[in-house]
């Protein structure tokens, strides 16, 4: 069996590796650097298990420029895992990348079953099939953590297949056969319901983040111990001790765009809770920024731009909003950033200092969305909401 995976990101690469255990897999993208990395047996993303895979399985995967494909007749399945960013101006996901890929592949005699892994609006799969007059398209959402994409692909919490017919069953069996975890539940449903599962799942996680962030806001205003409150609340097994570590707000690639897309999908539907999730996050970021801006400091050190531990990107990281709000509230404050992932001396006209010792000595206050052990020795100089040294 031959499988084409379009999109060399966390989702695409993790899925390609999973299926390469039993099938021939080709990755396709337009990013020349990512293609080169794959063909040089190097991971283009930060994920420890993916790095190990390339070390132990040289030349197992190959990557090509999607535009160089002459024909798609050889592929039995195509997995589309390209980005679908939320566009504020249209109040909707930008799904043009998916449409460009599908148009490209259909022009090259596509006969394969197409599995969409990109996050999409509710109702999109049916529209896509109608617009392209191509019926073998199935949505199957991913639930991966950045930095742990391969582990989560091999050990999924559940498998959602947006097709109840025999085609869906084949795809469910395909995924189940290649994962490591056993007794994983496979849910078959129509595409609209599968699309809903993805957006509502992330909205719930965002709601939970917002809830514990508001506990922290309340405790800060009333000078209470946030840690004691959260430990007491989460001892209730109905609530659980997870996704309860306060932060400056939810950010990253998934939660902000997915909650906004879900809210847009609620047009004409009575709601209060979904809209409040988005609003709560905006209020939290402004609250945190105001606290920092009131500090009697001149130079603030931003400790890491990345959103999560073990991440290698800072796309849509909450810290950017915090910095912008701080400057809005106090124009006399200057920043220095500690971010080892940036090799240049400046980032957006802000000084970069990648020597940790120099960084710690150069700033009056250290702002860290997420703490690390190395900051604990200077904790009196650190502003953070992180209580458990975890991502969530």
How would you portray this structure in words?
There is one protein chain. With 392 residues, the chain is an alpha/beta fold. The protein is 40% helix and 14% strand. The chain has 13 helices and 16 strands. The protein has helices at 10-20, 32-39, 48-56, 96-106, 124-132, 149-154, 166-178, 191-221, 226-234, 255-265, 273-293, 318-329, 356-362, and strands spanning 2-6, 24-29, 62-65, 77-80, 86-87, 92-93, 113-116, 137-139, 159-161, 186-188, 299-303, 334-338, 346-347, 350-352, 365-367, 382-383. The strands form 4 sheets. It has a 6-stranded parallel sheet with strand order 3-2-1-4-7-8, sandwiched between helices. Strand 9, helix 7 (166-178) and strand 10 (186-188) form a beta-alpha-beta unit. Helix 8 packs across helix 10 (255-265), helix 8 runs parallel beside helix 11 and helix 11 crosses helix 12. The longest helix has 31 residues, at 191-221. The radius of gyration is 22 Å and the shape is globular. It starts with a strand and ends in a 9-residue tail after the last strand. The relative contact order is 0.09. The model has no long low-confidence stretch (mean pLDDT 94).
